[in-house]
Amino acid sequence: MLKIMAATTKELLLLLRDRAGLLVLFLMPAILVVVITLVQENVMELTGQKKTRVVLLDLDQGDLGQSLEKQLEKGNLLIEQWDGKKNEADIRAAVKAGDYQIGIILPRDASAHFKQETARLFRQNKEEMTGQTAGPTFVQVFFDPLIMAGLRSGINAQLQMALTTIAMQAKLTILDRRLKEAMSGLPVPQEFMPLPGLNLPELLEQPLLSLKEIHGPRQAAGGAPYNPVQQNVPAWALFGMFFTAIPIAGAIIQERNSGIWTRLRALPVSPLVLFGGKATAYMGVCLCQFLLIALIGAYLFPCIGLPAFTISAQLPAVLLTVLLASLAACSYGIFLGMACNSYEQASTVGATSVVTAAAIGGIMVPVYAMPHAMQRLSIISPLNWGLSAFQDLLLRGNSLPAILDDLGRLLLFFALTALFAWKLAGTRHSRF
What's this model's pTM, rounded to 2 decimal places? Predict the structure, then answer.
């Protein structure tokens, strides 16, 4: 134990001297988690998962505009109404510039035309409709050129549903009045007469079929729904932790090239002790990396308009996941240091392998959004194992037993890379 503590102290002293390397290890994942989370938050707005900004120019100033605004506010739209001093060119310019994602214009005399066309449908005398201009009242809509096709289709459907509902209410209002007028002049038995309080438009508002979303245990208990913070904080913390493999490999290669490794092996010290000291020192770095990213998510994100990162009651399981992911990252760095012959080779192989593992492991793009072949390939990425464990704990609300398979994979990866590094250390020592 004392030998491992001495080796750990040596590694920490060497690490503290490399201030530029420490800055990269901590600054890179911190910048990435902020930038990527802000981008994903904006993507959620563009895909309709958050409220979409809509500007409504009501040139009619009648009942139709009020009804339309009321219907649209029931959806996931943030309505801002402009006064009559603006015109079509102004709203087009605002939407084209990206100030609003959608612009809606209600033309002048739209309410009068709408009422006229509604009444025309119920006229019994066909001769009265001769020579009259028939047709719907058109509501103009403009979309930001950068808006995604899925959101455009969803908003179009929502607008059409709102207009259909308004038209149906108007038709039912006239139908209700005509029905009562017709039945009042007929010798109809009392039991067949409409109820005094019966109102067809109000009946339209009463849903008979509806959807009920069933949440998981965490949401049912009052937890927050999904947000990109809970995904990106552990994801980019994992990325930074595995990037420590490069400085670990560089330190080992420097010791080998300078002859320090030969002198250390001449002492009564096992390679496992030397590796243990390096792993312990850099595991402390990995823990500090995760703590820094978690603090940024918990305290900085709310200041820039993002949800706060929370761990809730899963802290022991989260710490265990961080510990095993740190072990896996450090053992991989030790393996690279023993397998590569130069720092350039280690940095190239290390950076390429870590970025590739992050790409196929779901750090940059969610696994479910990948092609089927890449989804099957993601199971070989150690970062996918760590991220899957974090997702089960922080997003799905599962407990420790649900992540034992992922933790087992991380532990096996640590054992195999440490074993290969130990074998390589014995081989290299025999050459000297």
Answer: 0.67
DSSP assignments along 58-95, one per residue = ESS-SHHHHHHHHHHHTTTEEEEEE-TT--HHHHHHHH
- Indicate the SS3 state at residue 53: strand
Per-residue pLDDT band at 207 (split at 50, 70, 90)? low
Q: Tell which residue, 289, 285, 379, 378, has the closest CA to residue 330.
A: 285
Residue 391: name the closest of 302, 318, 282, 332 by CA: 318
Give the C-alpha separation, 234 to 65, whole Å: 47
Where on the phi/psi map is residue 188: left (φ > 0), alpha (ψ -120 to 50), or beta?
beta
Sequence-ordered list of residues with C-beta below 8 angstroms from that of 407, at least 6 positions apart, any chain: 320, 321, 324, 385, 389
Mean of all residue pLDDT scores within the chain = 77
- Write out pLDDT tens, residues 281-307: 888 889 999 999 999 999 998 988 888
Q: Are 91 and 194 in contact (CB under 8 A)?
A: no
pLDDT tens column, 349-395: 988 999 999 989 888 877 877 888 888 888 999 999 999 999 888 88
Q: Is the predicted pLDDT of residue 8 greater than 50, yes or no?
A: yes
Distance CA 19, CA 164 (A): 65
Show me where the domains of the chain are located: 2-44+228-431, 51-169+199-206
CATH architecture of the region 51-169+199-206: 3-Layer(aba) Sandwich (3.40)
Residue 380 DSSP label: G
Give the separation between CA 344 and CA 342, rounded to whole angstroms: 5
